[in-house]
Automatic annotation (TrEMBL):
Compartmental location: Lysosome; Nucleus, Nuclear pore complex
UniProt cross-references to PROSITE patterns, sorted A to Z: WD_REPEATS_2
Family: Belongs to the WD repeat SEC13 family.
Superkingdom classification of source: Eukaryota
Biological process terms in GO annotation: COPII-coated vesicle budding; mRNA transport; positive regulation of TOR signaling; protein exit from endoplasmic reticulum; protein import into nucleus
Broad class of the protein's primary localization: other
Keywords linked to the UniProt accession: Lysosome, mRNA transport, Nuclear pore complex, Nucleus, Protein transport, Repeat, Signal, Translocation, Transport, WD repeat
Organism: Geodia barretti (Barrett's horny sponge)
GO cellular component, one term: lysosome
Keyword Signal: yes
First and last residues of every WD repeat: 30-65
A GO MF label: structural molecule activity
Taxonomic lineage of the native organism: Eukaryota, Metazoa, Porifera, Demospongiae, Heteroscleromorpha
Designated name of the protein: Protein SEC13 homolog
Transmembrane recorded as keyword: no
Length: 139
């Protein structure tokens, strides 16, 4: 597991790398986006057998990448959402259960994984509305 070595790993051009003996070594190639990846956020999960990454892209998609060490340790991906415009940034809450996403549409959305494993938008703030308006979505 690599939870303690996040600073020694990077995701560049869809390639997950790790530092080994002072050199960068390709660990795995993550394919899924069709344009530039604008941001990558590692989900906090110290002590858990699951690693999770969110990637935001010029292709208007946010993808969630998950690696479960208990079932073979292969990275799997799911498209969180295809937005109407470029997605610039993703950031996990300190507990790792909520993902904030922002993009060129001037909105910030908060996402949470349901008990069934589906990602659900739990809140949306639209900067385009006067003063910004929070529109919670209850599921």
């Amino acid at each position: 597991m690599w939870y303690g070595t996040l600073l020694m790993r990077c995701l560049l051009y869809g390639v997950l790398c790790r530092e080994e003996n002072g050199e960068w070594v390709m660990e795995e190639k993550l394919e899924g986006h069709s344009d530039w990846v604008r941001d990558v956020a590692w989900c906090p999960g110290i002590g858990l057998p699951i690693s999770r990454i969110a990637s935001c892209s010029q292709d208007c998609k946010v993808m969630i990448w998950t690696k479960d060490e208990t079932v073979g340790g292969k990275w799997n991906s799911v498209v969180l959402k295809t937005f109407s415009d470029v997605v610039w940034h993703g950031s996990w809450s300190i507990t790792g259960d909520i993902l904030a996403v922002s993009g060129a549409d001037n909105k910030v959305t908060l996402w949470k994984e349901s008990m069934e494993g589906a990602w659900v938008c739990v809140s949306e703030v639209d900067k385009g509305q006067e003063g910004g308006t929070q529109q919670p979505q209850i599921s």
